Predict the structure of Response regulator transcription factor.
Amino acid sequence: MTRPTVLLADDHRILAEGVRGLLEPEFDLVAIVADGRALVEAAAELRPDAIVADISMPLLNGIDAIVQIRRAGVASRVVFLTMQRDVSYARRAMEAGASGYVLKHSAHDELIKALREALAGRTYVTPMIAGELLRSYREEGPRPADDPQRLTPRQREVLQLSAEGRSAKEVASLLSISTRTAEFHRARVMKAIGVRTTAELVQYAIRNGILAL
């Protein structure tokens, strides 16, 4: 019987190796990648049955990576494995197309169950935040003006790369755009989220789970 294939994305190598140990008795781990851009490329190439991904990763965070993966027509089930307990991250993950949300410190007890549920076409959210997530949907109001989901996908890419300390030239090279366009996007982003300095930009990116610490 063919075992389900899984692609793992996490920039913490020791943790990734621990997750490998959890997965290998039941799943075929096809690759481990360490940043969001590598995740997008590997998902398109390997088309795994499932993806286990962190949210905070270099170059491209996990949520925006999944958005790009879905746009590319990859239908892999996605389970986020993250330190982010804040329900706002879980909401963004589900809106991006995730089927599961598990906290890293409970991975040993919940990750395999979440993957089984995802592969069966169901959704799994760690019980630690499931009730809070449901309440957030019931009490939903308008998004705040500085919500990162108000930004375009390209603006979020520029935001993360800029917050990581990359120059406009480096951002342009990574995104295959002109330096002037990269500078334009950065200026628009800073205006949209109400920050004036690079330090404030970094703080915003960390606060919203866009920047990998």
Q: What stands out?
A: The chain is about 50% helix and 15% strand. The first strand starts at residue 5 and ends at 9. The longest helix spans residues 179-193.
